[in-house]
From TrEMBL:
Presence of the UniProt keyword Membrane in the record: yes
Species whose genome carries this gene: Leptospira wolbachii serovar Codice str. CDC
Signal peptide location: none
Transmembrane segments: 12-35, 41-60, 72-97, 103-127, 139-158, 178-197, 209-230, 242-260
Protein keywords: Membrane, Transmembrane, Transmembrane helix
Lineage: Bacteria, Pseudomonadati, Spirochaetota, Spirochaetia, Leptospirales
Name under which the protein is recorded: Uncharacterized protein
């Protein structure tokens, strides 16, 4: 079973590698994929981050002489670069964002996901996922999906606050970007049999259904709420759906933490 999962993980990594390379080439030749001026676009910086993360995984797996220090250095660059991007957009977005420029910055949501993935990858290169009640690796992967979940609400209900930055609608998580990030997360989970999640899921059908329900609730609950009360984005701000979403995230992580403590 584990070998089959590792094979699937490698296939997904190759798909992300090829896809991000295509996006990079498209940007270089001035024809970015699914480019639009009134909505989120997958930036060249996001493509670079994706390419580096999965590229390092594949290089480490297939090139036995691949330098360990290169992994740490490049992941530090990816993580540090995305932290810098977040700080730039938080501190002075009007200075660093030019809506007329052909260059699109990575959104705060996307950069947050890449920072979490980078931390996870660095930890995994330094040590195997430990058997501990503090399931840090599981938490990092789960939190890396949170920005995409928030953007999903934006795409479904066309909330500009969740979709992109008002100063430049191109700076956000596009649907293509969400597919890439979800694929990266899935390959990350399949690639690590030492995650507590796998141990919990092996406990039987009840455990599998419980986790599936908790995980799905994170995304379904805020959507159901918005369908019931109606979506009104005139103020262009966050609403109760955000807190409902985070409530689901905390419920899922809290449940896994309690289960890990009981093991």
């Amino acid at each position: 079973m584990e070998k089959r999962f590792l094979t699937w993980a490698e296939i997904l990594d190759i798909v992300v590698l090829i896809g991000s390379f295509v996006v990079l080439v498209a940007w270089i030749f001035g024809s970015p994929l699914f480019y639009r001026t009134d909505g989120p676009v997958l930036s060249i910086f996001s493509a670079i981050s994706l390419f580096v993360i999965v590229g390092l995984r594949l290089a480490t797996r297939h090139f036995h002489l691949w330098p360990f220090t290169a992994n740490l250095a490049l992941l530090m660059i990816v993580g540090g670069g995305n932290i810098s991007s977040i700080l730039m957009l938080l501190s002075a977005p009007a200075v660093h964002i030019n809506p007329k420029s052909s260059l699109v910055m990575t959104s705060i949501f996307t950069s947050t996901g890449f920072v979490l993935f980078s931390i996870y990858e660095i930890l995994l290169y330094l040590r195997k996922t430990p058997k501990s009640a503090w399931i840090l690796d599981d938490i990092l992967i789960h939190l890396a999906l949170v920005p995409g979940g928030m953007s999903l609400i934006g795409h479904i209900f066309q909330n500009p606050t969740y979709l992109s930055m008002s100063i430049d609608p191109r700076v956000g998580i596009s649907l293509l970007e969400m597919v890439f990030m979800a694929t990266l997360a899935l390959s990350t989970i399949l690639n690590n049999p030492n995650l507590f999640l796998w141990k919990f899921l092996k406990g039987g059908l009840t455990n599998q259904l419980t986790f599936a329900g908790l995980f799905a609730n994170q995304y379904i609950a805020p959507i159901v709420y918005l369908l019931l009360v109606g979506a009104n984005w005139q103020t262009g701000s966050f609403g109760p759906e955000l807190f409902i979403f985070f409530g689901g995230v905390f419920a899922t992580l809290g449940f896994l933490l309690f289960q890990a403590k009981l093991e």
